[in-house]
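SAMPLE LOG
Freezer: B-3
Tube label: C17
Construct: single chain, 149 aa
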Amino acid sequence: MATRDSSGSEDCPFCQIANTQTDTEILLSDEKLLCFRDITPGAAHHYLVIPRTHIDNCKCLQAADIPLVERMVEMGWSVLKKTKLRNLDDVRIGFHIPPFSSVPHLHLHVLAPASEMTFKSQLHYGPQSHWFITVDKVLSQLKTRGKVK
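STRUCTURE (predicted):
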C-alpha cells in the first residue's frame, strides 16, 4: 500500500538518513529535501535527492506534488554544478518505477556523465531501461493525468 507520512518508517533507510540517524554525508539539504551520494553509484557522479516526508515511490505522486519534484530536480542540478562537471548536457535524472525501486522511499537519481555509464548502469538508468522513468516524463504525466502511470 502506498504511503505518505511525515514521520516515515523506522525500517526505511532513507527516513533514517533524513532523521540524521546514520552517518551519511549530506551534500545539500533544506527543510523539505536532502541530497547524498548513492552507495552503489551507476556513474562517476550519482546522487540521490529524497523528500524528508516518506513517500513510497513515484507512482504515489499526484499533480499537487509537481513543485516537490521540480524542487528535487533543482537540488540535483545544484549538487552537479558544485562538482564542476564539464558537460552538464550529459546527465540522466529520474526515478525507478516500482517494483524496481531498491528502497521504498521516493528518491530521484541524478547521474553524470551518462555517456560513461557501464552496461549494467545503462540497464538500470539508461534510455532503454524499462525500470527507469525520466523526470520530464514524470512531470508530463502528473500535468496531464494527475498521477504517474
